[in-house]
Automatic annotation (TrEMBL):
It comes from Nicotiana sylvestris. GO terms for molecular function: transmembrane transporter activity. The lineage of its organism: Eukaryota, Viridiplantae, Streptophyta, Embryophyta, Tracheophyta. This is Glycerol-3-phosphate transporter 5. The keyword DNA-binding does not apply. The gene is LOC104215435. It is a multi-pass membrane protein. SUPFAM superfamilies: MFS general substrate transporter. Belongs to the major facilitator superfamily. Organophosphate:Pi antiporter (OPA) (TC 2.A.1.4) family. Belongs to the major facilitator superfamily. Phosphate:H(+) symporter (TC 2.A.1.9) family. It comes from the Eukaryota.
Amino acid sequence: MMELKPLNLVPPNRPPPGLNFFPNLNPPQKTLTFHKFLVLFLTFIAYAAFHASRKPPSIVKSVLGPEIKAQNGTNGWAPFEGPSGPHRLGELDLAFLLAYSIGMYFAGHIGDNIDLRLFLTVGMVGSGILVIAFGLGYFLDVHWLLFFVIVQILCGLFQSIGWPCVVAVIGNWFGKAKRGLIMGVWNSNTSVGNIIGSLVASSVLSFGWGWSFLLPGIFILVVAAFVYMFLVVSPDHIGLELASKEIEMNVEGVALVSSETGETEEEGVVVEPETEGAIGFLQAWRLPGVAPYAFCLFFSKLVAYTFLYWLPFYLRHTVVAGVQLSHKSAGILSTVFDIGGVVGGVLAGVTSDIIEARGVTSIIFLLLSMPALLFYRIYGSVSMFTNIALMLVSGALVNGPYSLITTAVAADLGTQSDIKGNSRALATVSAIIDATGSVGAALGPLLAGYISTRGWNSVFVMLILSIFIASLLLIPIVKNEIKEKLSEGKWLWISMIKR
């Protein structure tokens, strides 16, 4: 497999221009703690802005696609009108997500070799311009499918710059000691961004669907200006030093060094040297746990991204308590799913900490999400209260296991003697898992676009079946965790049940 070669570019070791305009922000006037919080805030709002700018396509689907004829005589926006409209909308999602998946590989490699602040700014500015360009299709009366496809492909490439950059910056500033708590809170940026995007896009939808793109596009451009002016990529750029040895992180925000080799120098523990060379692509697939986690993430992301891109459209075409929701109401109501995602992420993290088994926690959430989705489909239309309650529970159970799955992968692989201490090997494995999950994320919305024309029951069958397969793939890992806990004398209640 062809490997990317280093670019041999040295990122400039200089502070951002905003600190020159406001010298009081520099040390010693401002401490290390202040700058850590500033970095957390800027990277949080930056990636939230990325996600906010991704939401408009899902919010305007119900306007672009075939209209509900009982409401009015319009029939969508060409070329998305008519019976094949949902197919075309699904293809737009596929264009964006495939470009995003491919771009992640190159973005991570480039980000390792150039100034992360400038690279992140480029990604945000490019995303903002392209989101606005999509919205201009309304004002310029564009009905050419290829125009929207090209814009989505380019937007996917620019959006792929965001995650590797913000995670790399976080990795420069925060050590392992508080990484779990910090990442647990910080990772809610995706759900917060989705909520902001949904609310903004829905609030202006009545003025024309183009406005639903213009405002999120302007928002990310404004945030990009603050990132360019004030984001400090690394403490040494402003003459600060961290007390402990930092841990390299992969594109999912997971430490690339195991817990046994990532102790601080202050504790007097010798850091184990990295083994020579990176393992091969096929060899990485053969490592225990890689294939199950990779395909589990494939099916999990398939479900989550189907909701991300199609939930407002579904709500618009579903009668709740005998009432057909408006475009605006459907978009705002869809934010409940993302609120559930924030709650689920925290709940999954706390549960995992208590029982000390991420795989078990993940499979519990996945198994519970199947009846939750079934109940949501059956009883979600009974009343607005049941719809909100069941959507909140579904969002928590579907989105909760994400951080656990990715973190469990690093923890599991870090204990294997074959690659112990080899960050390049772990990076290869992480790339495999991320890429496999991204393919599922691209496939889910596409399938939903085609299957929804046959009825939404078929879509929910696909989602529940995907979660069931994801659960099956985790069974070997869960068995190993249970055996390990029993051998350590923990989970005695399981032994009592067996007796």
